[in-house]
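Table S2 (continued). Query chain:
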Amino acid sequence: MSFEFEGMDELIKRLENIEKKIPEEFDKLKMTVATEILEDVVENTPVNKNPKAKTAGNLRRGWKIRDLGDSVEIYNDVQSKGEYYAWDVEYGHRTRAGMGLKPSKRRRKSVVGDDGKILFVPGKFMLRNAMKVGKETLEKEGKRILDEITGGK
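Corresponding output:
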């Protein structure tokens, strides 16, 4: 008893074609999403508006992409007085005016103290928000590319 399969050669050719296209399409998708995230994060990074500021815009100009092969790293290496400060801008930070000998719940919760001093600077979440946009792009473009490669709808 013997069996004969029709269309097996065509299936093998399609699978070989898919195998060739996936790595190059993955690299394109990876860099497309990373570039979109970078543009969004740069656009939403705050800049010091003080005309006397010597380092105005350094944080915005400091965003970079590093291709690690199978992944991409988006980072900022700008330093102020030897310390990286992108983290503080992203998540917020307390100020020296907020430090006291007696910690109180009222002082920790408030942003501006009774004397008008800023106690806590809230975060801008520029990278977190850009990652949300990038995730949506990844899903949309990934589905489009997968459909294109496999010939589906």
